[in-house]
Amino acid sequence: MKKIFFLLIFSTLVSVSIAQEKYYNDKIDGMKQIQTATMLAKQSGRYVLCQVGGNWCPWCIRFAQFATTDSVIAPIIEKNFVYVHINYSKENKNPEAMRYLGNPARFGFPVFVILDEEGRPIHIQESASLEEGKSYNRKKVEHFLSLWTKESVKNLK
């Protein structure tokens, strides 16, 4: 009985700590984030990976955690993208940024928008096809990211 009680308390604490992690800031102007990320991308020879969503969205938090901790995915993002979280919430829907990104909210949340080094949106990716169980499928995410690196797109031109 003590083990069950301990596991229940532990899982509750883990859930609370995950829920409290903030990746999105509803006080930041999404267009300013995009402009800054684009400048960094241009300087570093990478593209921009915009993750649109909010702290209210469990799948948004799951992807942010997955993207920054997975031993395969995190290095791919670090090498190829400037990774930025664009807030979409009742507090701040970032309408200018949403228009600029091609109104990605229509795909649900999170949604990913790839920008080239000039800041032009070149791809919108819904996340449902990347999900598996209560997380993300590493191979599917790796495949998605590999299709939209600067090197991959450059080879198509």
What is the total number of structural domains? 1
Q: Report the principal-axis shape.
A: globular
Order of helices and strands: HHEHHEHEEEEHH
Contiguous runs where pLDDT drops below 50 for at least 5 residues: 4-8, 10-19
Structural class: alpha+beta
CATH topology: Glutaredoxin
Mean pLDDT: 91
Rg measurement, Å: 17 Å
Q: Superfamily at the CATH H level? A: Glutaredoxin
In the CATH hierarchy, the architecture is: 3-Layer(aba) Sandwich
Molecular structure report:
- By secondary structure, the protein is of the alpha+beta class.
- It has one domain: Glutaredoxin, CATH 3.40.30.
- It is 49% helix and 18% strand.
- It has seven helices and six strands.
- The protein has a four-stranded mixed sheet with strand order 2-1-3-4.
- The model is unreliable at 4-8 and 10-19 (pLDDT under 50).
Protein traits:
globular; Glutaredoxin; 157 residues; single chain; alpha+beta
Short description:
The protein is α+β, with helices and mostly antiparallel strands. The chain has one domain: Glutaredoxin, CATH 3.40.30.
Secondary-structure blueprint of this entry?
Blueprint: H1 2-20, H2 30-44, E1 47-53, H3 58-69, H4 73-80, E2 81-87, H5 95-100, E3 111-115, E4 121-126, E5 131-132, E6 135-136, H6 138-147, H7 150-156
Parallel strand pairs: 1-2
Antiparallel strand pairs: 1-3, 3-4, 5-6
